[in-house]
């Protein structure tokens, strides 16, 4: 199992760790990591792992392996890989991470502006989209933008807390996403709260306040089925 440092501090850019091993695909397993692993519509982090002799190992992406409990750091090249037990340091591509943090939090606000079941979504670098189960059309871009802008201007605090799997089962209304279930497996589930606005299970990385998101534009509303509307946003 990999200790997920990013869940407690999404702003941490550097850390040290020990190598647990190298997978059959050549991915690096560490005992702890600041790299976010692909899940919940958010891509895995890129960055660099630095070996003890100073040799850099560029990381192209990060994914989960072994029942989603171990994080695999996928190198850009299958060379100069560290040895099991070796102490290494790591640095994430902060520009990409922060752009995704802003976008992910903005999508939570979008789910408040449009209080319908979410059937899918993805987080990009300063952009993203959510799919909603909406029975009819008539969504207005300007109206959605105005609602999101109002919440951004509140500069509401974004914080997290943990509940047990049993507590989540007793409160199914907390889950907005129909296609993606909250990350489980450790006996507890992480809730992300935007003060006074939103509360939902989420394992992703977020900014500390809505004011960090900045201006949000709705760039498209697409019909993806009889009761499915895709709403795309871009951050300025």
Question: How would you explain this protein's 3D organization?
Answer:
Helix content is 17%, strand content 39%. With 236 residues, it is of the alpha+beta class. It folds into two domains: 3-92, Elongation Factor Tu (Ef-tu), domain 3 (Beta Barrel), CATH 2.40.30.130; 97-235, Threonyl-trna Synthetase, Chain A, domain 2 (Threonyl-tRNA Synthetase, Chain A, domain 2, 2-Layer Sandwich), CATH 3.30.980. The strands form four sheets. The protein has a six-stranded antiparallel barrel. A four-stranded antiparallel sheet has the order 9-10-15-14, covered by helices on one side. A hairpin with a 5-residue loop joins strand 2 and strand 3 (28-30). Helix 1 packs across helix 2 (141-153). It is elongated, with a radius of gyration of 19 Å. The N and C termini lie far apart (38 Å).
Largest sheet: 6 strands, antiparallel, barrel
User: What is CATH's topology name of the largest domain?
Assistant: Threonyl-tRNA Synthetase, Chain A, domain 2
How do the helices and strands follow one another from N- to C-terminus?
EEEEEEEEHEEHEHEEEE
Q: Supply the helix-strand structural class.
A: alpha+beta
CATH class of the largest domain: Alpha Beta
Distance N terminus to C terminus?
Answer: 38 Å
Task: Give the mean pLDDT.
Answer: 91
Assess the beta-strand content as a share of residues: 35-45%
CATH-assigned homologous superfamily of the largest domain: Threonyl-trna Synthetase, Chain A, domain 2
- Which spans of ≥5 residues are poorly predicted at pLDDT below 50? none
Measured on Cα atoms, how large is the radius of gyration?
19 Å
Strand order of the largest sheet: 2-3-7-6-5-8
Proportion of residues in helical segments: 10-25%
